[in-house]
Design goal:
The protein has 401 residues and is α/β, with parallel strands linked by helices. It has 14 helices and 13 strands. The chain has a domain at 80-106 and 212-384: Rossmann fold. It starts with a strand and ends in a 27-residue tail after the last strand. The model has no long low-confidence stretch (mean pLDDT 96).
Length: 401
């Protein structure tokens, strides 16, 4: 392991990495810092090609010291699919989809869970608690089971039913709250303070982001270290977009990539768009979004603790933030399935809606290489597809098509 320390991106305070630390004393999230000179000497592209096709292939840039502590279900190296049919149709011929729907637990949350749980195990954590909109809690519960860590999960009662079942069957202690993820977060914070549990809330521990950043590492490797022009990411807590930016910075520091970084786009729903509102105001932090509601449940985060990091990543890459409607999300979900056979989650579909809007505005050019990040399988959201097929009687004949 080449971790040097934990660092606060706000006040620049430094913390030892071998102790359990949640947030900086100033209240900001902590980031894992590496001795990148040592990483550069220890890691090579040639060696990478000989490793297993999972995210632990990047172990020099991950924070687990002893490989015996790694809890893995084979996550990572998800496909980067060229959207040839759809791209031709919408005049974006270099359109790609990074599909996280085939990862264990069915969403990109497995990336943060495998690294976060592995590091928690290494640090001796016995009980962890977290608020969730559903999929993160499900993923952490699934990984906590083989790690021997007790998981306490609190999610809104309106959360999709499938993640609830995943938590329950994995043996987590599951609670539902009448409210939003922010309400669940307050309940978890109180329990953590009273019981001394490890707080696995988004960015309240430093290691989830290290798992999420592997999406950026994979995109760079899958494009043979030549980066795309634009990456669109569905943004709730924003850990993914922060992680991708961190990954690309680290790759640049060790000399594996060169030139301008991709423009990062934070995609939100019009029913909950605090990052978009902040970006439009050229602000460095967001304001709590009242009355948040959208069918893209995973990005219903009224106020992200790492909002300033999301906005910084957008500004530093000349990116942007954009909101789309629920109707546009459903339309994009159907377009992706009908054109490419990819059944994506609503959050992932939102990135296509955003790309089409930005292309219509001229912000995305036809010759840009564009990556949509689908964060999960549409199979986890069956309620987004309403069908009424005709019913046949035995002996009926099928009409022509």
């Amino acid at each position: 392991m080449f971790v040097s320390h934990l660092a606060c991106p706000k006040c620049q305070a430094v913390y030892a990495s071998e102790k359990i630390v949640q947030l900086c004393a100033c209240g900001a999230p902590l980031l894992v810092e590496y001795d990148l000179d040592q990483v550069k000497n220890a890691m090579s592209k040639d060696a990478l090609h000989r490793r297993a096709p999972d995210l632990w292939r990047y172990r020099e840039l991950l924070p687990v010291k002893d490989e015996e502590n790694i809890v893995s279900l084979g996550e990572g190296m998800t496909p980067l699919l060229p959207m040839k049919n759809l791209g031709t149709k919408v005049n974006l011929p270099r359109l790609y989809l990074k599909d996280e729907g085939i990862i264990p637990s069915g969403t990109f949350k497995a990336r943060g869970a495998t690294v976060g749980v592995s590091r928690a195990k290494e640090l001796g954590v016995k009980v962890l608690a977290m608020p969730t909109n559903g999929n993160a809690g499900a993923a952490w519960a699934v990984y906590c089971a083989p790690a021997g860590i007790k998981a306490v999960i609190v999610m809104p009662e309106d959360a999709p039913p499938i993640p609830r079942g995943e938590c329950a069957i994995a043996g987590a202690q599951l609670y539902l709250v009448k409210g939003l993820i922010s309400d669940a977060g307050k309940i978890v914070a109180q329990a953590v303070a009273e019981n001394g549990w490890f707080d696995a809330s988004t960015l309240k521990e430093p290691y989830r982001i290290e798992g999420k950043k592997t999406m950026g590492l994979e995109i760079a490797e899958q494009f043979k270290w030549e980066l795309p022009d634009v990456i669109l990411y569905p943004t709730g807590g924003g850990v993914g977009i922060i992680g991708i930016y961190k990954a690309l910075q680290e790759l640049k520091a060790i000399g594996w990539i060169e030139g301008k970084l991709p423009r990062l786009v934070a995609v939100q729903s019009q029913g909950c768009a605090p990052i978009v509102k902040a970006w439009e105001a050229n602000a460095t932090e967001s304001v709590f979004w009242e009355g948040a509601q959208t069918l893209a449940f995973g990005i219903t985060v009224p106020k992200a603790i790492g909002d300033f990091l999301v906005l910084d990543a957008i500004y530093k890459t000349d990116g942007c933030a954009i909101a789309v409607s629920d109707d546009e999300i459903l339309e994009a979900e159907a377009m992706l399935a009908a054109s490419e056979g990819t059944f994506v989650c609503p959050e992932g579909a939102a990135t296509l809606s955003a790309a089409l809007k930005l292309a219509a505005q001229g912000w995305i050019k036809p010759d840009d290489r564009v990556v949509l990040l689908n964060t999960g399988s549409g199979l986890k959201y069956p309620e987004t597809v309403q069908i009424s097929p005709p019913v046949l009687n035995p002996g009926d004949t099928l009409p022509g098509v």
